Amino acid sequence: MLRLKAGGRLRAAIKNSLPREGEHVSIHWHGIRVPNAEDGVPYLTQPPVPPGESFTYDFAPPDAGTFFFHTHCNTAEQLGRGLAGILIVEGDEPEPYDTERLIVLRDWTIGEDGKFGPFLTSEAARAGTFGAIRSCNDMIAPDIAVPASADVRLRILNIDRTRNMQLGIEGAECAIIAIDGMPVSPFPLKAWFTGPAMRLDLAMRSPAEGRATLYDYFAPEPVPLAHFRSEGPPMRPRAFDPAGLKPNPIAEPDLESAERQVFSFSATATGAPVAAGAAVPEGVPAILLDDLCTTPQTFWAINKRAWPGRDHSLLPPPLATLRRGGSYIFELRNTTPRIHPIHLHGHSFKWLRSNKRDLPVHHADTVLLLPKERAEIAFVADNPGDWMFHCHIIEHQETGMMSYIRVA
Ligand code: C2O
Ligand code: CU
What we know:
Bound molecules: CU-O-CU linkage, copper (II) ion
Order of helices and strands: EEEEEHEEEEEEEEEEEEEEEEEEEEEEHE
Number of strands: 28
Low-confidence stretches: 271-295
Mean pLDDT: 92
Structural class: mainly beta
Number of helices: 2
């Protein structure tokens, strides 16, 4: 875990010490509005880092909140094996909470033989491959000690490659205070749907005694993910009334003048790339094919275009080009019977509405699209560069549901 203060600079070197030839790496700072060159997408924003070599990232995160970082190459496997970290940017608490706990949720894909994998299977054409072992902070349903009757900030991250979770807490009063690191004015937690890469900050009033439990309700039986055990004398006798967090400096889109763009997320029924042949523009430099990172199979597409290959070495033209500084409304249409957490790099957008759910307006960097859902998000395209736009179920991403948006 890296922690820094808002306004501070992060200088971080990645050194590729992976033993396998051709296994390149990069770091993407998920949810951080970095300058494009620091975004960590091989071929698109930087050269991939081959074994034995290093790359240094250097940026000042503009927003406080709960973020994470992960490799953006051969992601199904590298993230599956654990190549991810947590990035906390401090400075959003006008009134500090009594204490905080980090809750990192993910599966581990480990077979009966004790070996990792497989990370990409034919389940890629459906919901994706789930791990056999579910974990919180790399433990199975740990017991986490918290002070009794205290206001505890829980920074919850779903960093799994595949699993959508409906999170709720029993045995304690809770309010949602931030979504994807971005503050919302506190509202009571019932259950909140998080897809891979999504984060949820809660204020939890720990019980006076005994324990509270974090559950995933998106399962045949609720799955306990962590327990919070109260310890010591009660800290706060008064009623639960959590303070909100300071807003981040995100530009407000002008909804009246915003340009609307429609993106449809679909399955490619035949398994063949929808736009094969048309996808690679002329003048793209010699293609560096890396057999670890390529697969001929695609199952998914955005606006009928399937991304060619599993990695980023074959760059198609951008899916859309936005005017720098312009306001945009994206209408995201899920035409499939699957859930897709759709992530846009380099920006935080505002969730406006959907035809299926009534969620409060909030900022986010990843939006969960339920089956057949149509959601609208809005943002100001104020960060110039080429920004990945993809499903964060990594097997969907690596079998076609990936693209990028140019802000110029
Ligand atoms: Cu966390 Cu391109 O993703
Ligand atoms: Cu998906």
